[in-house]
Design brief:
This protein is an alpha/beta fold and 240 residues long. It has two domains: 3-75, no CATH class; 84-231, Flavodoxin domain (Rossmann fold), CATH 3.40.50. It contains eight helices and seven strands. Strands 1, 2, 3, 4, 5, 6 and 7 form a seven-stranded mixed sheet that branches. Helix 1 runs antiparallel to helix 2 (24-42), helix 2 runs antiparallel to helix 3 (46-75) and helix 4 packs parallel to helix 8. The longest helix has 30 residues, at 46-75.
């Protein structure tokens, strides 16, 4: 197998994995093309392999352009929703939960579990999506942010919400970041954004689609994992 063929196979596998939450068709096409290149390389059909590699190169270029110009803007499109209230008689404190639902249900499951855990622990919780109409965190004791990791950064609507929120005045902030299997760079960006907004990092939690979370939370269910985290949440500095 040539180095060029190996490079394109690896690239197509990676692109297929990244596209998995958004389009099963894109994932299947990428992996099928990678399998075709592997078969041609294995049977040493050089003329056909050369033609397929040219096609793969064109498709990869189109894929990169589509990812940045179409897929990511689509995935980062803000979703407006009404504020939903949970446990209005809670006495532990007031929590505002802002999240971006994304194009899979992973983040929503994790955030819903966290909200139920907070309510079970006595918090009054307001839940809504990250959009221009989302309320400011004024008057709350806790801010919870839920975002996907898109191209190594938190989903843009959540970033935009934090920038609009202004000075958080040391408000405790919990972040829930979801991704395929690696959210490290997005974690760093989120920490920096919260610090720049004047927030106090009260916790940062990850859930993944292709990587087990049982070793972190004792369960692979993102809903149950985040519910458990919220129920045991303890804030310092007189909050909560």
């Amino acid at each position: 197998m040539t180095i060029t063929a190996a490079f394109f196979i690896a690239l197509l596998i990676l692109f297929g994995a990244l596209a998995l939450p958004y389009s099963a068709i894109l994932t299947g096409a990428s992996w099928l093309l990678g399998a075709g290149i592997l078969a041609l390389a294995y049977f040493r059909l050089r003329a056909k392999l050369r033609a397929v590699l040219i096609i793969a190169g064109i498709l990869c270029a189109l894929g990169v352009a589509g990812w940045n110009l179409v897929l990511m803007p689509w995935a980062n499109q803000p979703v407006a929703s009404e504020v939903t209230h949970f446990n209005p008689d809670g006495e532990t404190g007031r929590a505002l939960v802002i999240y971006h639902p994304g194009r899979s249900d992973l983040q929503e499951r994790a955030v819903t579990g966290f909200v139920e855990g907070l309510a079970a622990a006595g918090w009054r919780v307001d839940l809504t999506t990250a959009s221009a109409q989302a309320p400011a965190p004024t008057g709350y004791d806790l801010l919870v942010l839920g975002a996907q990791s898109y191209t190594w950064a938190p989903a843009q609507p959540v970033q935009d919400y934090l920038r609009r929120a202004g000075d958080l005045n040391d408000l405790p902030v919990v972040a829930i970041l979801s991704g395929l299997g690696e959210t490290g760079p997005a974690n760093d960006v989120m920490r920096d954004l919260i610090a720049a907004a004047g927030g106090s990092m009260a916790g940062l939690y990850n859930v993944w689609q292709l990587r087990p979370i049982e070793r972190l939370y004792g369960t692979d269910d993102p809903f149950a994992a985040m519910r458990g985290v919220a129920e045991s949440l303890t804030l310092t500095g007189g909050h909560g």
